[in-house]
Amino acid sequence: MLLLSAARALVDGIDSRVRASGFTDLRPAHGFAFARLSGAGATVTDLAEHLEITKQAASQMAEELIRKGYVVRRPHPTDARARLLVLTEKGHACTQAADRAAAETLAPLAAALTPAQAAALRTALTHLATPGRIRPIW
After folding, report:
1. Structural domain includes residue 22
2. Domain HTH marR-type spans what residues (predicted)?
3. Disulfide engineering: 58 pairs with which of 10, 48, 79, 95, CB 3.0-4.6 Å?
């Protein structure tokens, strides 16, 4: 329960700071989508798999992010039938704001630990976490 509470505090801290940066039309679930789209982009199917939601829900989220100017559709480089979702300049600006927000949110937590405690916590979490599995809890 403590780990879930800490995770929620982290999400809430990042969300409030992202909103304070001017991105008031997003919710935390969008940030998890941005994490998947921030590299070379992704298809709706990729996004659905990443968020563990239906393709229809991922498509609705994509449409919302397109309407808000955070994402655009582009031709897929290797599949003529697929469309790639990629972040716009506004989308990248939001991810940069989220990175700053995460650092600001984590700073007081890190300051509360000694360097040895921080290293031990990082090691323990590395053993517990599943790499690449960062998604919202619906």
Report:
1. yes
2. 1-130
3. 48
Write b or e for each residue in 102-131: b if 16 or more Cβ atoms lie within 10 A of its Cβ, otherwise e.
Answer: beebeeeeeeeeeeeeeeeeeeeeeeeeee
d(CA 89, CA 108): 30
Q: How many residues does the chain have?
A: 138
* pLDDT band of 2, cuts 50, 70, 90: confident
Under a CB-based contact definition with an 8 Å cutoff, are residues 70 and 37 in contact? Answer: no
Collapsing DSSP to helix, strand or coil, 39 comes out as coil
Place of tokens 């995770």: 7
d(CA 30, CA 73): 16
pLDDT band at 134 (very low <50, low <70, confident <90, very high): low
Q: How far apart are the C-alpha atoms of 18 and 13, rounded to whole Å?
A: 9
DSSP-derived secondary structure letter, 130: P
Integer Cα distance of 27 and 44 in angstroms: 19
Residue 90: inside a domain, yes or no?
yes
Q: Can you give the residue range of the structural domain that contains 36?
A: 2-128
76 inside domain: yes
